[in-house]
Amino acid sequence: MTTAFALRLAHLHAILYRRRPLIRTILNQNPSLLRLYETSRREWVNDYGIHAKVADLLFQQLHNPELYYQVLKDVRAYTFIHEGEDRYPHLLRQIPDAPPVLYAMGDVTLLKYHPSLSIVGTRTPSNMASRKLDTVLLPLAKEKWLFVSGMARGIDRMVHEMAIENNTSTIGVLAFGLNHCYPHENWTLQKFIGENHLLLSEYPPSIPPEKWHFPERNRIISGLTYGTLVVEARNKSGSLITADQALEQNREVFAIPGEIWSEQCAGCLALIQQGAKMVQKPQHIIEDWKIM
């Protein structure tokens, strides 16, 4: 059941999802969001320090009945989770710029599942990628580890499918709202994960994919677990952004080495040079989890 506070927060988030620091400012000054609909334009500017144009937008959209009923429909269609709830992931709460809200489809108990591992990699894997996954990840799948990845082409898709094929659990973190699918060829996979595992998004359900969403959502992929494994990555790739964010979050970074002439392996080799733990077998990951 959605509380009155959750509905107010979902409405605020639908307007300001691009301005997470502003959402936090408003919550810090008004934790219960009471008087959200009574606050005037002048109060938004004077009491909250909001720019006049943003205050106008906020006031207008808070009094837009179409948006209100769309938000009401969204929180009924999906599971709406905010930071103040016990079911909000503990590890994610610890990261810088944690998402104030999450929309979920599927089994939200997986947010508390351990052991779990975040896994990322290139959208154009080498012909050795499948063998690498079989060597390092398949034994973990058989031991019922949960795999977190980003529902992209290539490595992400291979990871989700490995989890499903081996009857373990997986979480797909989307760079768009739950009403959408990208890439389109993942529609069947995304639907299956939403019905049998878990899909997560920090965006309102109606928000389509945007280029800047993908590096932004990577902090959630790394933030959900104690460590991130990079399977294959080119230099300056999105997977390396995820690895950098994992380090900023004080999480472990693992990388599988590869051929020195392979573009798909250049990023992993660079990570290992910079101090990421080289992984050649599953025990290299398991031994760190035992310490954690």
From TrEMBL:
Residues 80-289 form the Smf/DprA SLOG domain. It holds the Pfam family DNA_processg_A. GO terms for biological process: DNA-mediated transformation. It comes from the Bacteria. Coiled coil: none annotated. Belongs to the DprA/Smf family. This is DNA processing protein DprA. It comes from Pontibacillus halophilus JSM 076056 = DSM 19796.
